[in-house]
């Protein structure tokens, strides 16, 4: 939303926050992924897990994802 409005609309999230650690502390499991090539294997582990699992994908907040409604 920073790209569109210049500020965070819903929440001001800190970059690279370890949300997977929060899930782990609550009895689940998870991991952080920073390399797109490792995402598939992380999702495989998540689906094979028998507990709630979070795949925390770290992205670049400066890169807006394509939205067809904004003309990007």
Report on this model:
It contains three helices and two strands, in the order ααβαβ. It is of the alpha+beta class and 72 residues long. The protein has a two-stranded parallel sheet with strand order 1-2. The longest helix has 10 residues, at 39-48.
> What is the average of the pLDDT values?
85
The portion of residues assigned to helices is: 25-40%
Q: What's the number of extended β-strand segments? A: 2
Structure classification: alpha+beta
Distance from N terminus to C terminus (CA atoms, Å) equals: 13 Å
Keywords:
72 residues; alpha+beta; two-stranded parallel ribbon; 2 strands; 14% strand
Secondary structure: elements and pairs:
Elements: H1 2-5, H2 19-25, E1 29-33, H3 39-48, E2 53-57
Parallel strand pairs: 1-2
Task: Give the gist of this structure.
This protein has 72 residues and is α+β, with helices and mostly antiparallel strands.
């Amino acid at each position: 939303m920073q790209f569109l409005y210049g500020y965070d609309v819903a929440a001001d999230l800190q970059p690279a926050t370890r949300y997977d650690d929060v899930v782990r502390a609550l009895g689940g499991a998870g991991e952080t992924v920073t390399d797109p090539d490792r995402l598939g294997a992380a999702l495989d582990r998540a689906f094979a897990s028998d507990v709630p699992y979070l795949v925390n994908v770290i992205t670049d907040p400066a890169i807006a994802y394509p939205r067809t409604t904004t003309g990007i």
